[in-house]
Write a structure and sequence with these properties.
alpha/beta; 7-stranded mixed sheet; 4-stranded parallel sheet; 15 helices
């Protein structure tokens, strides 16, 4: 058993507690939470105290690419389509062992920043292997690519093969999903096949959606640099006359009941209504959106529509790190509001709020302690964790 005491305790679903404590049982769940004097101290337990610390639920990073950790600082390309191509070139030149090392480093970097759960998309399976080996928590979405409708079967077979290999790593902390990457890398027939697979097997889905003006030009008008690149490969491009959100709604991709839409910058009020009606959730990545010049996602509109929204750092190639609090700052959030978005709201976006995201008895003991004077009021700019706990196990100290 583990007992943590801190100068300030933020349950998130209840008011903050001065000189608070949490007791973790031998199953890795929260057994008690409250003022220090009211939380039991069973014999034989491990006890850690942080009188100048803030104890909070573990942070939830709703969008990462951990397999790309080794590429931080290596791509300086302002043009987004060329940036995408450069990432693909660097991935093609990377050995499998390097992807695994990169993913492991990404997991550890997240723990050092108080992140206890990630929603990761990747094509190599390295994040799933790394999280399993290290004892981490997350949802890993296996990416599938294939813009050519004539090669659907090949792409689909590659996906099912990868899923078969990765299922061995699924456990109580790790879930496996699918990610048909984006409208500029996935054909309409392939979207349909993946959506059908997700529904039949109950797999969570993640899609990069409405991220850039170039994507909107491709889907709506059949124009722009993505369209030109596809035509150069001999792939026919159709002007759909609708937004990327409406396009994927019509293809049934967002109707799985557990679909995480990543970015959603280029959306209007009609798109917001479609996302709500589809029961989708959103991974909001303000620093990445800003770095690539995509604009700002309408966070206020999403929240007004009661669409679940969590914050994500995207790949370190875009943002430089997996530290979550700067995402809250970039989204215009601070204090208790930022902490909610980084914890319980992120968990809700992933459908995990019944397990993590707040300090409640019976939930998984995913916790983080940050340096924070007890007299400083609401938490702010919590970046470097003093302690991180996943399912009751100390993973960073």
């Amino acid at each position: 058993m583990l007992r943590l005491r801190a100068g300030l305790l933020h349950p998130v679903t209840a008011p903050p507690i001065s000189d608070g404590a949490v007791l973790v049982d031998d199953r890795g769940k929260i057994a008690a939470v409250g003022p220090h004097a009211s939380v039991p101290s069973p014999p034989g337990m491990e006890s850690l105290e942080f009188p100048q610390g803030a104890l909070v639920p573990g942070l939830v990073n709703c969008h990462t690419h951990l397999e790309l950790t080794h590429l931080a600082g290596r791509v300086a390309e302002p043009d987004f389509p060329r940036w995408i191509r450069r990432i693909r070139e660097l991935k093609d030149a990377t050995a499998p062992a390097t992807f695994l090392q990169a993913a492991e480093q990404g997991v550890k970097d997240g723990w050092a920043a108080g992140v206890t759960c990630v929603a990761d998309t990747g094509s190599t399976g390295a994040a799933m292997e790394a999280l399993h080996a290290l004892g981490g928590r997350g949802v890993v979405y296996q990416e599938v690519f294939g813009p050519d409708p004539e090669r659907v079967e090949q792409s689909f077979e590659e996906l099912t093969h990868a899923l078969g290999r990765l299922r061995r790593y699924v456990n109580g902390r790790l879930a496996l999903g699918v990610s048909p990457h984006a409208p500029y890398t996935v054909s309409a027939p392939l979207y349909g096949r993946v959506a059908e697979l997700a529904r039949s097997e109950g797999l969570p889905v993640a899609v990069h959606l409405a991220e850039s003006p170039e994507e909107t030009a491709l889907v709506c008008d059949g124009a722009g640099p993505f369209a030109e690149a596809l035509r150069a490969r001999g792939i026919a491009v159709e002007a759909r006359g609708r937004s990327p959100v409406e396009y994927l709604v019509r293809l049934g991709v967002l109707a799985s009941g557990n679909c995480l839409c990543i970015h959603c910058v280029q959306v209007d009020q009609k798109d917001v209504a479609l996302l709500k009606d589809a029961g989708a959730s959103i991974a909001h990545c303000p620093r990445s959106n800003r770095a690539h010049g995509h604009g700002g996602a309408p966070l206020a509109a999403f929240r007004a529509a009661a669409i679940p929204v969590g914050l994500g750092t995207d790949s370190v190639v875009s943002t430089g790190d997996v530290t979550l609090w700067p995402e809250a700052t970039a989204a215009g959030l601070a204090g208790d509001e930022a902490l909610r978005m980084l914890t319980i709201e992120g968990a809700r976006a992933l459908g995990l709020d019944h397990e993590i995201g707040s300090l409640d008895v019976g939930k998984q003991a995913d916790l983080a302690v940050f340096s924070h004077p007890p007299t400083a009021g609401p938490p702010d700019r919590l970046t470097a964790a003093l302690l991180t706990v996943v399912a009751g196990r100390v993973v960073h100290h």
